[in-house]
Design brief:
This is SPOR domain-containing protein. By secondary structure, this protein is α+β, with helices and mostly antiparallel strands. It is built from 2 helices and 3 strands, in the order βββαα.
Length: about 60
């Protein structure tokens, strides 16, 4: 069994180490469940950065 899991952006599916090229995937993640939540994790992180990074929207003041 794989120690790392990936989320394939092409197939919108969780994959083990052997899968699509890494350029088409997000990860690696430590568990299948974490990989399944990759898009939600990315969205949450983007929102956090948007709230906390003043330069996010070009407002560097």
């Amino acid at each position: 069994m794989s120690d790392q899991w990936w989320f394939c952006l092409t197939h919108q599916a969780v994959e083990p180490d052997k899968g699509c090229p890494n350029k088409d995937r997000m990860g690696p993640y430590p568990t299948r469940e974490a990989a399944a939540g990759a898009l939600q994790t990315a969205a949450r992180r983007n929102e956090d950065w948007k709230k906390n990074d003043r330069g996010w929207d070009g407002d560097d003041d």
